[in-house]
Write a structure and sequence with these properties.
Elements lengths: L1 E4 L5 E5 L9 E11 L2 E13 L13 E5 L5 E14 L2 E10 H7 L6 E7 H9 L5 E5 L5 E6 L5 H12 L2 E9 L2 E10 L6 E7 L4 E9 L6 E8 L5 E3 L9 E3 L1 H8 L6 E5 L6 H15 L3 E8 L11 E6 L6 E12 L8 E9 L5 H21 L3 E5 L12 E9 L2 E2 L9 E6 L7 H6 L6 E4 L7 E6 L15 E6 L16 E7 L4 E8 L10 E8 L4 E7 L9 E5 L2 E9 L5 E7 L5 E2 L6 E7 L4 E5 L4 E6 L5 E6 H5 L7 E4 L12 E7 L2 E6 L8 E7 L4 E8 L13 E10 L5 E9 L10 E7 L7
Parallel strand pairs: 9-12, 13-20, 15-18, 33-37
Antiparallel strand pairs: 1-2, 1-5, 3-4, 3-21, 4-7, 5-6, 6-7, 8-10, 11-12, 14-19, 15-16, 15-17, 20-21, 21-22, 23-24, 24-25, 24-27, 26-28, 29-49, 30-31, 31-32, 32-33, 34-35, 35-36, 36-38, 39-40, 40-41, 41-42, 43-44, 44-45, 45-46, 47-48, 48-49
Helix pairs in contact: 1-3, 2-3
């Protein structure tokens, strides 16, 4: 998952593979701290997103992508290149980004200055000043050096030079507090992480391939060492600190690898070093790299029980190779992709030959590593938040709810945890477990309802390694065409409505669909807003209709079949322009007005609380507002008793709904899941379906309709996702019903084509 930040580093969107934001493709985050020439620092990100999403517009200049790494640090990437591309039928936006630290340093010029005896901290602080980047952890000194910062180069250029010269490793990251970046930091350390994990990579077990290539073509036992040109235009050498000699030799290496023959001569140059002593130190370090035959190792990692972090030490063994290959290496580059894990790559470097060990020792070490890994997994805890919306005085004569929300890092993963993974524990006052109570409350999920029986005891909830894929999931690919509302008037009808279908409910048991459309015809009179309800068969062929005069917009309603009569639950406006929640009988050709005896007044409400009925579970959903809609869930029994007593509520913003930029359309409830749709008439704002758990206010999934999957096909230039509802078929299978109001191809331009699509919501993996 990637969080999108605007130019002011404020959160403005999410890229997510699990339906909680805009999808993405081909992401590749590559971080490198060294190569065979020494220390370097590179940190880049590539990613692609499809068209049709609100977030796609943010893949451009000035925006950033925030990613939490496996090491717990937050890394921010500034978008530097963007291009539009077509992959088959899909338009995508491809972007390249670099670590925000590097971006800032690229745009800061370092003034010319000379230092006679600069420490590493002095040098790095000098190039970072005024860049907005702070030094975080710095555990390296490395002595003092004479440094000459010439004019005309940026801070990133000098960072590269100092990184190599001081042989340090860099981490560029940000600190995040309350969802905002508060600091931009750089760690400068001798060895990044440097953890010796105990991981061994063994050929035929952990590796796809392993190749060792030996060469002494670039082996030297005598090195001439040269630096840059000083202010006198003289080439700096080590002669003044090396008894007049411009070279260094390694007698032991010459005896071991050259049989004591004439020295093997070479030369090395570092034009950034102007101090003879510093040049001497650098030359000695370089001799260690050139005084022996070089072996190059290509290690292809197939799988690891635990992915190493950057800088970790790993040992690679192959007991079949002759001579036996046993080396120690470090992770110097990580390439990782969420969307395409096959692109993940672990690059090993800084190889050191080590003494071979027996297979028995290897297995003992592997066992210890496995035990350490298991202990670490067991110690890894989810963050659990408890909510008590009814209070905590359990001695009162009423039941109380305890609701659990679970986070893994900063991610809300409540919807990914199966019911049976929530383990409720009751500890009595004497410290003993109430096992009878615990057994009775197994597999109840993350919502517990208790009463006076828990007074004096302690209640806890544990998550039993519960992280899974989301329990429910649907995508645009799961949709299929269902029906179209008949577009021509039946014989003998006048006053035919051709507008957008605001809502639709399927009565599968009787083979009917009830559709609502805003009505402005002759029957409306002086009413402020009215709607017409049309009943069709399951193909969309019209049977009959009725009018709800002054009944409002008609964007939500519920249906309930009782004793041979269909009832409609809706909001309704009285003759004094006050709003009510009502239910009324569906009666063919009836012109319904306030005061009719068939209207049952249930509640008075302060505004147009759009209403939906969950018949199966006995709840009523009310929705207030549009920019940040508030969803209220009440018991049906309370509403029938004329009481508005919400037992759960949530805002659209609780589930990452950007209401100021999206057009709210409609909602429905299948407890505990609330579904709602958004999207304007021309696709300017993205067309979305949200599913969230009203109890924990946790987003389960989100579909952003792009209408390019071949399952929902746009007609002309109008595409409103007006209605969301559902029904259960005769086998008990649930189907979501997504309605779209499209343009049309062959009837007058103002008429809408109202279509329903059936979505197969399922457990991920089905």
């Amino acid at each position: 998952m990637y969080t999108i930040l605007d130019p002011d580093l404020n959160v403005c969107g999410v890229l997510d593979l699990n339906g909680k934001g805009c999808k993405f493709y081909n992401d590749l985050r590559s971080v490198k701290i060294a190569d065979d020439q020494g220390k370097i620092w590179l940190d880049t990100l590539q990613i692609s997103v499809p068209y049709g999403y609100r977030e796609t517009e943010f893949m451009t200049q000035g925006y950033h992508l925030l990613k939490q790494g496996d090491d717990g640090f937050f890394y921010c990437y500034r978008i530097i290149d963007w291009e539009d591309d077509v992959i088959g039928p899909t338009h995508v936006k491809n972007v390249n980004a670099i670590n925000l630290v590097a971006w800032k340093l690229f745009h800061k010029i370092v003034s010319a200055k000379s230092f006679n005896a600069a420490s590493s901290q002095t040098a790095f602080e000098y190039i970072l000043q005024g860049s907005g980047v702070e030094i975080g952890n710095m555990d390296f000194f490395g002595g003092t050096k004479s440094l000459e910062f010439s004019a005309g180069n940026n801070a990133q250029y000098w960072l590269d030079q100092l990184t190599n010269q001081f042989s340090v490793e860099i981490r560029g990251y940000v600190q995040v507090y309350n969802g905002k970046i508060v600091r931009i930091l750089m760690d400068i350390v001798e060895e990044l992480l440097g953890e010796s994990t105990g991981n061994r990579l063994e050929y035929t077990h952990d590796l796809l391939g392993l190749k060792r290539t030996g060469s002494d073509n670039e082996m030297y036992t005598k090195l001439f060492v040269y630096g840059g040109t000083n202010s006198k235009n003289e080439l700096v050498t080590i002669a003044s600190v090396n008894n007049g000699r411009e070279y260094i030799v390694d007698e032991e290496a010459n005896d071991a690898f050259n049989n004591g023959g004439p020295y093997l001569e070479g030369y090395i140059v570092n034009d950034q070093i102007l101090n003879p002593s510093g040049l001497m130190d650098w030359g000695k370090k370089q001799m260690e790299k050139w005084n022996h035959p070089k072996y190059n190792y290509e290690v292809d990692v197939a799988h690891l029980r635990e992915k190493p972090n950057l800088g970790d030490h790993i040992q690679v063994v192959d007991f079949s190779m002759q001579p036996v290959l046993t080396i120690s290496a470090r992770t110097i580059q990580l390439d990782e992709s969420e969307a395409n894990p096959t692109n993940n790559k672990v690059i090993l470097g800084e190889f050191i030959e080590i003494l071979a060990v027996t297979p028995q020792v290897i297995w003992e070490l592997r066992a210890k590593a496995s035990q350490a890994e298991q202990a670490a997994e067991q110690a890894k805890a989810y963050k659990i938040e408890y909510f008590t919306p009814d209070g905590t005085d359990f001695a009162e004569d009423s039941e109380k709810r305890i609701i659990i929300r679970v986070y893994y890092g900063s991610e809300d993963i409540t919807s990914k945890i199966a019911k049976e993974k929530f383990i409720w524990i009751k500890i009595n006052a004497d410290g003993s477990h109430d096992t009878i109570w615990e057994n009775a409350h197994k597999a109840i999920g993350n919502v517990l309802t208790v009463g006076a029986e828990v007074v004096g005891s302690t209640l806890r909830c544990q998550v039993d390694n519960g992280l899974t894929d989301p329990i429910l999931f649907a995508s645009e690919e799961d949709a299929a065409y269902f029906c179209t509302l008949q577009m021509n008037a039946p014989s003998g009808w006048d006053d035919f409505t051709k507008t957008v279908a605001q809502y639709a409910q399927v009565d599968n048991d009787r083979g009917d669909i009830y559709w609502s459309q805003t009505y402005t015809g002759s029957k409306n009179g002086t009413a402020i807003s009215s709607y017409v309800v049309t009943r069709t068969d399951l193909t969309g062929a019209i049977k009959d209709r009725m009018w709800a005069i002054n009944g409002g917009h008609g964007s939500h309603f519920g249906i309930e079949y009782i004793n041979g009569q269909m009832w409609i639950w809706s909001y309704y406006r009285d003759n004094n322009n006050k709003w009510h929640i009502v239910k009324y009988k569906y009666q063919a050709n009836k012109v319904l007005k306030w005061g009719d005896s068939s209207i049952v007044d249930l509640l008075s409400v302060p505004s147009d609380y759009r209403t939906n009925l969950d018949v199966r579970n006995g709840y009523v959903l009310f929705v207030a507002g549009k920019a940040d809609p508030i969803f209220y869930v009440c018991k049906k029994s309370d509403v029938l008793n004329h009481q508005f007593k919400p037992i759960y509520s949530a805002k659209g913003s609780d589930v990452n709904y950007f209401g100021t930029e999206q057009t709210y359309q409609s909602a429905c409830l299948d407890y505990p899941y609330v579904y709602f749709t958004s999207g304007g008439s021309t696709g300017v704002d993205q067309r979305c379906l949200y599913c969230f758990d009203i109890r924990s206010k946790s987003l389960v999934y989100r579909i952003v309709y792009t209408l390019d999957k071949g399952t929902i096909e746009e007609i002309n230039n109008h595409n409103e996702p007006e209605t969301i509802s559902y029904y259960y078929d005769s086998n008990g299978k649930k189907w979501l019903v997504q309605g779209f109001a499209f343009g049309n191809e062959d009837i007058e331009e103002s008429q809408r084509t109202n279509q329903l699509f059936r979505i197969n919501e399922h457990t991920r993996g089905e």
